[in-house]
Amino acid sequence: MLILWTQLVFQKGAQETKKNAQASYKRLNPLHISRDAMIQIDKDAFMGMKSLAEDNHPKEIVVLLRGNRSGDVFHITDYLIPPFGFGSRRSASFPAYMLPIDFSILGTAHSHPSGNLRPSTGDMHNFYGRLMMILGPPYSMNNVAAYTKQGKVIPVKVLSD
Fold it and tell me: Which residues have a Cβ under 8 Å from the Cβ of 141 and sit 6 or more positions away?
């Protein structure tokens, strides 16, 4: 009976320790993105990316997303065109080693002129930052998708002025 009680107490303690460790990891790890994550993008930033994608269609474009993170909300305020970035009908890329150190860069956005909003294998292998947005024709607020490095979808909301 004493052995059974000891095992029960030990198992319960191990479960609580595991839960506490997971909670601490999520709280302390700045790269962790929870299921409740959301992207809010300023309308001016979105309209700029939209115009860039439309002007370069049928070639892909790539931009760096700049903003801040507050808990589970990523707020995109601006975008940057990466130095020496290039786009073609099949891909868009940039040399990451040419980027300056900028901790406000949250990830990338690029267009898929085909209209497919799912990331390709190449997209996932060349992931830069914490999130990736994909814009597709007709380049409207309804044709945007965002993903984590693990390929999980993150909802996107375009903020009005």
Answer: 46, 158
Q: 76-106, pLDDT tens digit by residue? A: 999 999 998 888 888 888 999 988 899 999 9
**Domain spans in the chain, listed from the N-terminal domain onward:** 1-30, 33-159
Rounded Cα gap, residues 56 and 41, in angstroms? 21
Encoded tokens for 77: 């305020």
SS3 sequence, the chain? CHHHHHHHHHHHHHHHHHHHHHHHHHHHCCCCCCCCCEEEEEHHHHHHHHHHHHHHCCCCCEEEEEEEEECCEEEEEEEECCCCCEECCCCEECCHHHCCCCCCEEEEEEECCCCCCCCCHHHHHCCCCCEEEEECCCCCCCCEEEECCCCCEECEEEECC
Predicted confidence band of residue 35 (pLDDT cuts 50, 70, 90): confident
CATH code at 33-159: 3.40.140.10
**Cα gap 65→133, rounded to integer Å:** 9
